[in-house]
Structure formats: structure tokens, C-alpha cells
Specification:
Structural class: alpha/beta
CATH class of the largest domain: Alpha Beta
Length: about 280
């Protein structure tokens, strides 16, 4: 199987657009179409359908998706392990959502390198559902998520807490002023998002919806708005008078969970790394 065909299939699946997939792969749109056609001929099935100018996976395409991800991930992993320097005899694939890398996980990598100098690190940023799928498919060793998952194949351990507070760019503001300030919705996980939805008596449409806290922060500093952001991230802005806390908004603590397969053998070379992460007191940046 030509890995380029699978890579093209995954890109079209992600973008749902042949033209966008072509741009991302630095190909012409006709080349992308030809690759998909060749893959369909090789497999003897149709992988995509077009409905109202939208490209959708067929049932066969849905079944192929996890296999394509696993095949490409296994190939990439093989190339990495073969090319791994001799002095590095362990590899850890660590995943997290974009918000957690922004505010929480960046500080982990240097600590891991100091504690395990022979460790080769690979990171991934994605949505929680894709991280869990990668974990179950063996493409990740461990991931950090905001949801406390219940899965019979996975173990989870709380490794820290994000202290989230609502801030804005004007003093003496309250929740009733948020519609005028501009509500910025930052995705901190399903449980927290449900709490955000109950903040206001009447529904407030956000002027910005983002999964990255640094985008929300820069928007407020450069323009205006109000959002829930990690206390540690905004403390110096509060001290300098660039940001202000909404007087009647409560702090909400969001736990961060380390998730890894239950099948991980305690005799594995990675087990000390997992234990180190579990015992590490991580704080938001």
C-alpha cells in the first residue's frame, strides 16, 4: 500500500475539501483526485460521497479511517525508532489539547528531559476524542485531557488543577456587563462549558470562540472582551492593570487528567516515566 494514498485520504477526510487538501499537501487538486481514485480502485470501494457541496465519508471510508491512521502512525514510529540516536533508548509519545499545551504541559517537557536524559519525546496536539483514539490505537503512550474519562481500557490520574477566573480589559465590570464587553468563549472541556452556559440569565453570543487561551488573551489585551483564563497566565497582567477581574464571577477549578492504557506493563521502560508524571506537581503557566 502506498503511504501517500493513505496520507491523501486522511487529509481529504480532515478538510472535507479536495482543494484545501491539495493546498495542505502541496499538490494540484487533480493529483489529489487521482490519488483518491487510485485508492478506491485498489480497495474496490467508494470512500467519499458529495452532498450539497460537502464531502462525506462512506461507511467504507469510515471503516478505513482508523486503519489508515494506525498504518501511517506505525510507519512514522518505525522511521523514528530506527533513526533514534543510540544514547536515547526510550520514546514517549505525549498528547494534549491545544489549551493544555498553552497553559499546562509546556513546563513538563524540560522536566522529563532532565529526569530521563535518554528519553526521546514526541508530542501531539489534538482534540480529546482524537487523542483517546490515538491512545487506544497505540499511536500515543499517554495524554493529558480535561475530561475524567470512563473507559475500561484506560487508567487516569489527576495531575493538576487549572484555576480559571473571568477577566476583562476594563475595571469595575460585572457579569451583566459582559454582553457589552464582548463574551469570549474558551473551550475548557464539556463540564466547564456547561458551567459557562449557566453564567448568564439570558443567552450571550460570543464574539470569539476558541480552543486556545493565548488567542483569547491577546484579543482582550489588543481589543476588548471577557473570558475565563488561567489565574497563573493573567496574574502579571492583573498586577500591571492591563486586565481586571469581574467582581461577581467565581473562580472555577478544572482538573487535568493523565490518561494511559491499562495494558501498560509495569516492567516497561516507560513505567517510571508514567509514575514521574503522576507524581509531578504541575501548575498552569
Amino acid at each position: 500500500m502506498n503511504s501517500d494514498l493513505l496520507r491523501t485520504f486522511l487529509e481529504v477526510t480532515k478538510t472535507r475539501h479536495f482543494g484545501h487538501a491539495a493546498e495542505n499537501l502541496y499538490l494540484t487538486q487533480s493529483a489529489v483526485s487521482a490519488r483518491i481514485k487510485q485508492l478506491e480502485e485498489n480497495l474496490g470501494v467508494q470512500l467519499f460521497t458529495r452532498e450539497r457541496h460537502n464531502i462525506l465519508l462512506t461507511p467504507a471510508g469510515e471503516r478505513l479511517l482508523p486503519h489508515a491512521e494506525n498504518i501511517l502512525a506505525a510507519w512514522q514510529l518505525a522511521m523514528q525508532e530506527i533513526g533514534m540516536p543510540k544514547q536515547q533508548n526510550m520514546q514517549l509519545a505525549l498528547g494534549g489539547t491545544s489549551n493544555l499545551w498553552d497553559t499546562f504541559l509546556q513546563s513538563v517537557l524540560p522536566k522529563l528531559s532532565v529526569e530521563f536524559p535518554r528519553l526521546y519525546l514526541r508530542t501531539e496536539i489534538n482534540q480529546s476524542q482524537y487523542l483517546i483514539r490515538a491512545l487506544l490505537g497505540g499511536r500515543l503512550d499517554v495524554c493529558a485531557v480535561l475530561e475524567n474519562l470512563t473507559n475500561i481500557d484506560l487508567d487516569s490520574h489527576t495531575i493538576g488543577t487549572l484555576e480559571l477566573i473571568m477577566v476583562c480589559n476594563k475595571p469595575y465590570q460585572t457579569l451583566k456587563d459582559v454582553p457589552e464587553l464582548g463574551y469570549i468563549f474558551v473551550d475548557w472541556g464539556t463540564a466547564f462549558n456547561l458551567q459557562q452556559a449557566r453564567l448568564f440569565t439570558d443567552p450571550v453570543a460570543p464574539i470569539l470562540h476558541t480552543a486556545q487561551s493565548h488567542i483569547a488573551l491577546e484579543f482582550i489585551l489588543q481589543h476588548q472582551g471577557a473570558a475565563y483564563l488561567p489565574r497563573a497566565t493573567v496574574e502579571h497582567h492583573l498586577a500591571e492593570g492591563a486586565l481586571f477581574r469581574l467582581a461577581d464571577s467565581a473562580q472555577i477549578d478544572q482538573q487535568v487528567h493523565l490518561v494511559y492504557p491499562k495494558t501498560l506493563d509495569k516492567s516497561s521502560t516507560l513505567w517510571p516515566v508514567i509514575q514521574f508524571l503522576k507524581e509531578l506537581e504541575i501548575t498552569s503557566n
